[in-house]
Amino acid sequence: MLTKLFTQLNAMSPLSEGFESDLKKRVLILSLPKNHCLVEIAKVADHAYFLNSGFAMAFRYIGGRKHVEELYKAGSIVVSPKSFFSRMPSVESIQLLEDSEVLHLSYEDLLALFSAHPVAHKLCEVTLSQYYEESRERIHDLQYLSAVERYEKLERTFPKVEQLLPQEYVASYLGIAPQSLSRIKREQRAL
Asked: Is 149 within a domain?
């Protein structure tokens, strides 16, 4: 059950047997249904997750409309960083888009790992760095790629996204109107 997680963590920094053993004792494995919220708006995110299988999205409401900000596929570390690490109410929700198996670690257990294992700090640093780089890439894409290029990149990165998300949410993630997404898809089918 923890093979994917340990493979990913080992790629970030070599893990000691002591750390692996301690993490195994602290991580809970959950099978959760589609639409389950891992993080809720206005609540403090008390857990960090590893998406062993499934798919999830982060969103917030702006002007009463849901805006999709991030997508997570199997193998992703899923966390609301500001809420989790700063212990502040979250400004976003993170929802599962299909039945999923998740591993979760509480904030208190993470602090215990920090105290006992220096590698925990390194893993956290690498994870936050990856979140930062993904955010920068997303900003870059929104500023410099055309809507068509963003859509093509989305299809490559998340091949089944259109089976899991309504078109209005796909358009929201791309930063375009649903009508524009329909036009892009029509034009691509015509090619």
From this structure: no
Beta strand segments in 7-99, E:
28-32, 37-39, 47-53, 55-62, 65-73, 77-78, 93-96
d(CA 75, CA 61): 26
Sheet holding 93-96, edge to edge: 37-39, 93-96, 55-62, 65-73
Rg (CA), the chain: 18
| Structural domain span for residue 96 | 3-111
CB 106 within 8 A of CB 47: yes
Q: Give the full edge-to-edge strand order of the sheet including 100-106.
A: 28-32, 100-106, 47-53, 77-78
56 and 132 in contact (C-beta within 8 Å)?
A: no
Number of domains, the chain: 1
Q: Token pair for residue 161?
A: 């996204």
116-169 pLDDT per residue, tens = 999 999 999 999 999 999 999 999 999 999 999 999 999 999 999 999 999 999
CATH label of the domain that carries residue 75 = 2.60.120.10
